[in-house]
Amino acid sequence: MVLVLVLGDLHIPHRQHGLPPKFKKLLMPGKIQHILCTGNLCTKESYDYLKGLASDVHVAKGDFDENSSYPEQKTVTVGQFKIGLCHGHQIVPWGDMESLSLLQRQLDVDVLITGHTHKFEAFEHEGKFYINPGSATGAFHPLESDVTPSFVLMDIQSSMVVTYVYQLVGDDVKVERIEFKKSS
Questions:
Q1: pTM metric for this prediction
Q2: CB of 84 within 8 A of CB of 111?
Q3: Do residues 50 and 35 lie in contact, with contact meaning Cβ atoms separated by under 8 Å?
């Protein structure tokens, strides 16, 4: 079992002061092996927080990140899965399936993780898996002021990814489970 935390669009301190306390309680050091972040951490302090949760942290550059050394896109291999990571502001129109599919083919990945829309999505398309973890802090988006805080934990087991989506709805953390099996 390999646990991968997928999150992004924190926008700390510009749009939110921090992660929701109920999320912080769930994210304990030593449990997670890898972190894939779609960007917009904004500050070094947010990066340092993630580094305290897991030593293997990968970040794609968001349009509000202070650190200019983050790459625009990145590929990471975890187990049998090649995973692509991109913030998503470069994908036009934002969140468009055809544009996402084009990036997935360019990166030649099994799983494509993007953000920017601040809206959680996870779906299979043409044998590949797409994840947008949403905004971990619930930071507002220019096109959406009512954002549900969310993040994703991927449990990678040989040729299967079991995805757990955590969403803060009111005062309750709701968890949804989604499975993706890699085709041979």
A1: 0.92
A2: yes
A3: yes
